[in-house]
Amino acid sequence: FLVSSVMIASFAQRLVRTVCPQCKKPYKPPLEVLQFWGLDESEDTNFMQGKGCFNCLNTGYKGRTGIYEVLVIDDLIQKLIIKNSTSQEITRAAVSSGTLNTLKENAADKVRTGITTFEEASSAVLI
């Protein structure tokens, strides 16, 4: 009971490598990969891959960025915590009510905008 009454949000983060700005090039990922990540071919996307250069030591990556998950504790989630619900039940309720932005969704956004790659996102997000 105490946890649910004082908690207002829960955060999780993972770090992923960012695509090198010096050697990044646009690319078109396979349709299966887009579907797996819940992305649509027709969406406004900017998929990028690093080709490797002197700046990134031929890795295609330079620097890191965060992938974040935020769960806002609203009345519904509070009640589920008090009821001692499982984490799966809480997650399902939070996703359906829109109070949970998952690591996978945030990772997909970072890939869609060319900040990182599907490979990096996959290494940081349990899918």
Tell me the number of helical segments per DSSP (H or I, 4 or more residues long). Answer: 6
CATH class assignment: Alpha Beta
- Biggest sheet: strands side by side, in what order? 1-4-5
> What is the CATH homology-level superfamily?
P-loop containing nucleotide triphosphate hydrolases
Low-confidence stretches: none
Number of domains: 1
The name of the CATH architecture is 3-Layer(aba) Sandwich
Termini separation: 31 Å
Q: Which structural class should the secondary elements be placed in?
A: alpha+beta
- Radius of gyration (Å): 18 Å
As a percent range, the share of helical residues equals 25-40%
Order of helices and strands: HEEHEEHHEHH
- Major beta-sheet overview: 3 strands, antiparallel
CATH fold group: Rossmann fold
Count the beta strands. Answer: 5
Percent strand equals 15-25%
Shape field? elongated
Overall mean pLDDT stands at 89
How are the SSEs ordered, and which strands pair?
Elements: H1 2-6, E1 9-19, E2 24-26, H2 31-36, E3 48-50, E4 61-72, H3 75-82, H4 87-97, E5 100-101, H5 103-112, H6 118-124
Antiparallel strand pairs: 1-4, 2-3, 4-5
